[in-house]
Amino acid sequence: MAAEWDEFVDKSKNGTFLLKRQFMDYHSHRFTDCSLVVYEDNELIGLFPANWDDETRRVYSHQGLTYGGLIYLPEVTQLQVLQMMQAIMLWYIDFLQARTLTYKPIPYIYSTCAAEEDLYALFRANARLTSRGVSSVVEMDNPLKLRKLRIRGAKKAIDAGLYIDRMVDEDWSVLKEYMDMLEEGLQKHHNLKPVHTFEEMQLLMSRFPQQIKLYLTRKDRKTIVAGCIVFITRRVAHIQYISSNDEGRKNGALDLLFRHLIYERFKNMAYIDFGISTENHGHYLNEGLIFQKEGFGARAICYDAYEVELDRTVIEQMQPGIIKAPQGRVKFLDLKRINASFEPALSDAITRVVRSGWYLQGSAVRQFERNFAEYIGVTDCVLCGNGLEALTLILRAYKILRNWDDESEVIVPANTFIASILAIREAGLKPVLCEPTPETYLIDVQAAESLISEHTVAIMPVHLYGRVAPMTQINALAAKHNCVVVEDAAQAHGAKYEGVRAGHLGNAAGFSFYPGKNLGALGDAGCITTDDGELAALVRKLGNYGSSEKYVNDYPGLNSRTDEIQAAALDIKLPRLDADNERRREIARRYVEGIDNLLIQKPEMPHNEADNVFYVFPIRCKCREQLQNWLKEQGIETLIHYPIPPHKQKALSEFAGMKLPVTEQIHREILSLPISPLMTDEEVERVIAALNVFNYNVE
Ligand SMILES: *Cc1c(COP(=O)(O)O)cnc(C)c1O
Predict the structure, then answer these.
(1) pLDDT of residue 367
(2) Tell me, what DSSP letter sits at residue 361?
(3) Residues 123 and 272 sit within 8 Å (Cβ to Cβ)
C-alpha cells in the first residue's frame, strides 16, 4: 500500500512529498492513523490522510509539516470530489462513530491546478472555519520588489563577513548545532519548542535527503548565526524553522540568506512559502515576521482549518446533484428520500416515544387525533390499525347503530383498490359494484342510482388517485334514498371539494396512513373522521376489543389501534401535507403540459385544482406493457393501479362472470407515473422526455 500511495501522490493534482506514506508512517508514533484510500471501479482515485482521536471521536487532518486534505488525480471532477468527501465522511460515521472532522485543505499553491473542489464539498457538509494561519508566499512568476531595507540588510551581512552555507549530507553535528540554536530562540522569544526534536529531524533528513535541506548563515568560518530548513516540493520551496541569534539579527543574516534562497537557489520554483506568521490558532499576526517576509516580496495565503459536525442526515444531503443523478433511476415513490426530509424531527419524535415507556393509546395518539380532526374540519378522528379496518369499523358501527341486516347493500365503485370491497364484506354487508365514468375514473352517479335497491343502506365513493368523487350528487342521491355516505378517503388526504376537505364530505370517512399514501406512517395505520360523535365512540370501542372499560366487552370487537410511534411520526409529517400536495399538483401540471404523445392519454384535470391531491398520476395507453417496459429501460419506475379489477379476483369469486366494460378497459390501459413531492424538476423532465419519444406500432 505504501508504494501505491507514494506513486499516487506523485501523480496527483495536489499531493506533496510531505504526504508520502513513508513520511506519514514516520509520524505514526504521534497519531492513530485513520487515513483512507478511495477507489472507483477498482481504480485508486483519492487518498485521505487523517488521524484519529478516540477521546473526542475526532478525525483530523495531519498536523505539523504534513498538510491535510484530500489528494486526487488531475482528471477527477468536482462531482467526484464531492462524492469522495461524502463517502469518506459516511465511512467515519459508520465505522468509527466519528463526531467531528477537522479538515485542512491543501493550500492552492501546492496544486497543479488552482481548483479547490474539496472546499466546496466542505461547505456542503456545513463546515465552519475554526482557525486561519496566514503564510507569506513569494509568487516567483510575479514577485514584488525586494525592499531597500532588506537589500541594505544583506549588504551589511556581507560587510560583517557573513556567508551562506548548507549542511552537507549526513553532517549531523551541524544539524544538532542549528537545532540547539533554534530551540533556544523559540524558547526565548515565543516560549515554544520546535515540533520536531533533533532526532526526528535527523531521521527525516536521512529519509528525504533531496527534499529537506538545512541552509545556514555563518560568521568567521564556523559560528552559525542564522538558518532555516527548506522542504522542497514539486512547485514550492517551503521554508520552515527560521531562526537567527542576536548576532545574526544585528547583522542582517536572514536578509542575506533569504535573498540567496529566493533569487538564486530556488529561483525556478513556482512559490517560496515562508510559512505561517500567525499565532494562537490564527488569532493574531506576528507582525515582526510578516514585516520581514513582506520585505522579500511575500504576500499572504491562508492555511485554514475547518470543522465539520458529522451529522449523517446533513452529509447524506450534501450533494443533491448526485442523489438526484440524471442517470440514476427515477423511483416511483422514494420513501427513503421522503422520510429523510423530515429528519431529525422524525427520529427525535420516535425516540421520545421509545423512552416514554408508553406505546399504545397514549398522548401521541390523542394529539394526532386532535390535530387531524382539526385539519379535516371534523369533530372526531379515531385512529385504528389501517385503512381497511377504518372502513370496516365504520360499517360495523353503522350496522349496529342503524340495525342493518346481512342483506344490506353498499354501492361501491368497481374500479377501486380491493380494500374498499373487502371492508364491506368484513362488516357482513353486500358490496354492489358500480362502473366509473371513463373520463374521471370516479363513481358514475347515474350508474349508482340505477343500482339502488330496497336493500341499499350506504354508498361508498372512493376518491381514487387523489381526486374527490362528485360528492354533491352522491350526497343528494343518498339523501333521496336514506343512505349513509362513507368516503373511502385513503388516497385523498388533504383534497378539498368546494372548500371542504375529503373526510368531511359524507357521514364518515376512512383514511389509510400506509407508508406510500400522501400522509404515510412508518408502518400500518389508519383512522376514521366524522362529525357523528355516537359513531366515533362506537368505532373506538369496536377497535379496542369492543370495550371502553378495561376487561368489560360490550361487542365482539377487534384489535385495531395505531401505536404511539406511528401517531408521533404522523404528527411530525402532517404540517407539511398541504405543501407536499401542492408540489404533487405542480408536477401533475408539468406532466399535463409536457406529455405530448398521441399514444398516451393524459388524465382529465378537475375544474378546481384543490379537488385533486394526485396520490397517483394515471395515464392510459393501449400498449401499456410496451410503454412500461420502455420506461423501465429508461430507468423510470411505474406502477399499475390496478392490474386486475376486483370482480376478476379469485378472492371475490361471487362476481365471476360479471361484465363491467369501463372498469375492465381502465384496468387494461392505466399506468401510474412517478409522482412524489420530493421528485426533482429534472426527474419530472426525464419522465416527460422518455414518454414523448416512446413509439410503438399499435397494429
Ligand atoms: C390504501 C387503500 C386502502 C386500504 O388502506 P390500508 O391501510 O392499506 O389497509 C383502502 N382503500 C383505498 C382506495 C386505498 O388506496
Answers:
(1) 98
(2) S
(3) no
Closest ligand 1 atom to the C-alpha of 512?
Answer: 7
H-helix or E-strand spanning residue 332: none
User: What single string gives the DSSP state of each residue in 279-299?
Assistant: ETTTTEE-HHHHHHHHTTT-E
Dist CA 589 CA 580 (whole Å): 14
Q: How far is CA 62 from the centre of its chain?
A: 28
Q: φ and ψ at 639, to 5 degrees?
A: -135, 165
Nearest to 420 by CA among 397, 387, 447, 466: 387
Q: What would the pLDDT profile of 365-381 be if each residue is shown by its tens digit?
A: 999 999 999 999 999 99
Question: Identity (one letter) of the amino acid at 277?
Answer: S
Report the C-alpha gap between 439 and 226 in whole angstroms. 92
Residue of 53, 86, 49, 54 lying closest to 321 (CA atoms)? 86
- Between the alpha carbon of residue 554 and those of residues 389, 390, 544, 548, 550, the distances in Å are 19, 19, 11, 8, 11
Q: How far is the CA of 386 from the centre of ligand 1 (A)?
A: 8
If you write DSSP's letter for every residue of 533-595 in order, what string do you get?
HHHHHHHHHHTBTTEEETTEESS---B---BHHHHHHHHHHGGGHHHHHHHHHHHHHHHHHH-
Give the nearest ligand 1 atom to 388 CA. Answer: 9
Distance CA 286, CA 281 (A): 12
For 296-305, how does the pLDDT look when each residue is reduced to its tens digit (9 = 90+)?
A: 888 888 888 8
The residue count for the chain: 699
Give the burial class of 668: count Cβ atoms within 10 A of its Cβ; 0-12 exposed, 13-18 middle, 19 or more buried: middle
Low-confidence ranges of the chain (pLDDT < 70): 17, 26-28, 63-67, 112-116, 319-328, 697-699
> Rounded to two decimals, what is the model's pTM?
0.58
Best probe residue, ligand 1, of 412, 512, 566 (max atoms within 8 Å of C-beta): 512
SS3 content of the chain, % helix, strand, coil (to 5): 40, 20, 35
- Counting atoms of ligand 1 from 1, which one is nearest the CA of 513? 7
